[in-house]
Amino acid sequence: MSRVPTEEAKSGGNIRRLTAPAIASRKGGEPVVMLTAYTARTAELLDRHCDMLLVGDSVAQVIYGLPSTLPVSLDMMIAHGAAVVRGSARSLVVVDLPFGSYEEGPEQAFRSAARVLQETGAGAVKLEGGVKMAPTIEYLTARGIPVMAHVGLTPQAVNTLGGYRARGGRNDEFSEIFDDAVAVDKAGAFSMVIEAVLESLAVSITHAVNCPTIGIGASARCDGQVLVVDDMLGMFERNAKFVRRFENLASRIDAAAETYAATVRARQFPDPSHTYAARVRSRAEA
Hints:
Oligomer: single chain
Distance between the termini: 32 Å
Strand content: 5-15%
Number of domains: 1
Helix content: 25-40%
C-alpha cells in the first residue's frame, strides 16, 4: 500500500509545525481549528486544514469499540500519537494523557507526559480537571511540557459526574467550572477545551481567561472548536447534540461495500485490467 507524501515532503521540508506558544498567541484572533486524529492517513488528510490535531482518548470508542475512555492505556495513546505525528507536518499534535496516568500527582504526570513527548514527537499533552489539577499543570509547564487543559464535561470522570450530560446548569456547578477554568489558566495551560457546558458559561470563561478556549458543545464565541473526526464525518448513527455532521461517510462506505460485494459475487471483479497476464518473451529478450 502506497503512502501519500506529507505536505512537508511535497514542499521540500519548508513547512514549520505550529507550536503551543503559536496557538496561545491566537487568543481573540482567528479561530483555532482542531479535530481528532488516530491514524497517519487521517492526519495526512486533515493536516493542511487544522491548526491542531488531538490524539484523543476517544480512540477507545472510535477505534476499539470500548464503552468509555477509561480502559485506554498510555501505550495505546503513544502508539496512535506517533502515527499522527508521522502523518502530519503543520498541525500541533496534542496527545491525551489517559485515565490513571497523571491523577496520582505531578511526578506521575511528568513521567507519563515525558514518555508521550519523547516517544511520539508530539508538541503537547492534554489532561482533564480544574482546580485540583492546577498544581500538576504548573509542575509540567515549569518543566517544559505544554499542557492543554479540559474543563466542563470531563469524560474520564463520567462515573462521578453521573453520565454524559451538559454541565453548568446549576449555580454551584456554573461557579465550580468557571473556577476550574480560571485555575488551569493561571497554572499555565496554553489552551483549554471546554466541553458540553451552557453557552453563557463558555462565553464567560472565554472572556475571563488569557489562553484560547476550544469549544466542543460550548459556543461559537470560543477561540476555537474541536470535534471527534468520525462524528464530524457521520460515521456513527447516534451523536451528541453538539455534533454537526459535515459528511455522511457511513452511508457512502455502506454503498461502496454493497457494490463491491455484488461485483465479486457476479465474478465481475477482478477484470483483466486488475490481473496480471503472462508476458511472452521474444528470443531477443531471452
